Amino acid sequence: GARIGILGGGQLGRMLSIAAAQLGYSCHIYAPESDSIAAEVSAEFTSAPWHTEGALRAFARKCDVITYEFENVPVGPLAAIPAEKLAPGPLALEVAQDRLAEKRFAQELGGQPAPYAPVDTRDDLLAAFDRFGPGILKTRREGYDGKGQWRLSSREEAEALNQPNRGLIYEGLVAFEAEFSVILVRGRDGEIRFWDSAHNSHESGILARSVLPAPAVITQQVGDARKLAAAVAEKLGYIGVLTLEFFATADGPIFNEMAPRVHNSGHWSIEGAVTSQFENHIRAICGLPLGDTSLTGDAVEMLNLIGTDGAEAAQYLSDADAHLHFYGKGDARPGRKMGHVTYVHHKARG
Ligand code: ATP
Ligand code: MG
Ligand code: MG
After folding, report:
1. Where on this chain does ATP bind (predicted)?
2. CA neighbor of 328 nearest in space, from 4, 107, 17, 79
């Protein structure tokens, strides 16, 4: 079968590889790390820095189509990959890897972000605090799982902060009722399908659980959120799975951020949807027909295993309803996503 190249070597790449294998494809992982949990389940692994043009060229020659599971791949070096092989294209990466760019992009398409201001200096931060009050200072680039963020509740805290001195954004704190994400897949022919939006809960800035069906406060706002997500996908000429995160508020859905890839809040779809986000991403980039995204049960719940070691995770094996996914990362450091568990519930019949 054809060879799929994946830029990035984490659990998303691992789950993409597994889905690809089911459809008769094999994967070649490209990542800067010397160890990769995605490479463990893939046919080939290139361990080289992102900026190694020769290695990228050789990788591209061996792959029929190339995708990414990590949105912080530097865009410049990707010029070494023939444009027609890359899906989604580099524009999606460029926009999604900069919080300022993604907010502006969403706004141009009618999206409503949290109040924000770019921050490069201490004066910028204090001015932003004076405008928006309590909020979160974030690095524009490379943050994930709440890393690279400082929550500020008072002006004194803002004054005392020893912040990096450029490339930041300050966001006013959104008083949200709930969080959700819109996950869609767009095929090469432009067809778009959405998964149901789960209710996402975060702990310490890290996704802890996703639950379906979501409460009415979310389902009432999913329509507007989907319109924005579809507009983003169209504008980018997007191919594959795209995720937009939202806050459900009294003023409607507030756009938080986007990820040009499969997403943690869609892991439930492996057992909880007829076609998972991973399989549909592979289908889309390979030009296959998209699969049905509907739920396989009446309710679905995904729990992240954060900092959970193998022995602790193994306890889910004695729970008949639990689908355990363990990523094989080794060291169970606090805050590290080690795996997840999915439950699919069926209403009693009768
Ligand atoms: P991810 O792992 O999702 O990429 P991230 O590091 O990019 O995370 P964000 O999504 O920006 O971080 O923020 C993480 C969480 O912090 C959000 O899901 C939300 O719970 C909270 N949060 C972020 N920004 C705001 C805001 N402006 N107002 C209120 N809460 C916020
Ligand atoms: Mg993010
Ligand atoms: Mg986020």
Report:
1. 99, 138, 143-149, 171-174, 179, 202, 256-257
2. 17
Ligand 1 touching residue 324 (CB < 6 A): no
Looking at the 3D structure of the chain, how many domains does it have?
3
Tell me if 10 is assigned to a ligand binding site: no
* Nearest alpha carbon, ligand 1 atom 16: 205
Burial of 157 (0-12, 13-18, 19+ CB in 10 A): middle
Q: What is the CATH number of the domain that holds 121?
A: 3.30.1490.20
CATH code of 269's domain: 3.30.470.20
99 belongs to an annotated ligand binding site? yes
Establish if 103 belongs to a structural domain. no
What pTM was estimated for this model as a whole? Answer: 0.97
Record the tokens describing residue 188, joined without a space.
């090469």
Encode pLDDT of 122-162 as tens digits: 999 999 999 999 999 999 999 888 888 999 999 999 999 98
**Helices first, then strands: H and E counts in the chain:** 10, 17
Ligand nearest the Cα of residue 247 is 1
Q: What is the ipTM of this complex?
A: 0.98
Place of tokens 């949990």: 37
Strand partners of residue 29:
6, 45
149 annotated to a ligand binding site: yes
Q: Are 5 and 66 in contact (CB under 8 A)?
A: yes
**Residue 6 near residue 67, CB atoms below 8 Å:** yes
Determine if ligand 1 sits within 6 Å of the CB of residue 179: yes
Give the span between the Cα atoms of 92 and 69, in whole angstroms: 13
Task: Say how many Å lie between the CA of residue 307 and the centre of ligand 1.
Answer: 19
- Phi, psi angles (nearest 5°) of residue 228: -65, -45
